[in-house]
Amino acid sequence: NVDITNVAADNTNIAWVDTDAAVNYGNVTVTGGTLAQEDSDDFYAAHVDGEGNIVSYFKTLQAAVDAANGKTIVLVQDYTEDVTISQEEGKNIIIDGKDFNFSGTIYIDGNSRFEGEETLTIQNFNFTTEEDSHDFISANTTDGETRYAHNVTVKDCEFTAPEENTAVVGMRFRQAYNINVEDCKFENMFL
After folding, report:
1. Mean pLDDT confidence for 96-116
2. Residue 7 Cα distances to 11, 30, 46, 58, 102, angstroms
3. pTM of the prediction?
């Protein structure tokens, strides 16, 4: 066994482990060896490259969002977690649910940037809950530090509450701008 606890996370190492992330691999060829990695059931999100190939796995969606740095984030199985996406200058984010069920809340922090140009796309999620009161996507704040969610597109998503219920909300935006909803389905709830 080799301890790689203090190995820097970059492309020059054979493998490294980030907090809340899976093992990442650089440009290395191994002949005659055995690849050992954690069980894939331990990971809920991944980054993909421009061709859709997974380049790294994450144990939480929040960890994948925090490390996005221009990569598309995908869910790799059904998941429940509350996630906060901070809209930072120049950081465009795409999160693809890949039609998996998601029963947490995605909070959007606009960083009180009234003229931000960065974009956030949330697509292909099956938002579902068994709760009587729940918000799936929320930017519902007047807080001077987190308001003004902006340039958000939600597309090809389904939002489902257990039964007709006015306390479950698909999307709740306040003090936000350029919010686009495309080809989404809402069942038993308010927008």
Report:
1. 90
2. 11, 19, 21, 18, 34
3. 0.77
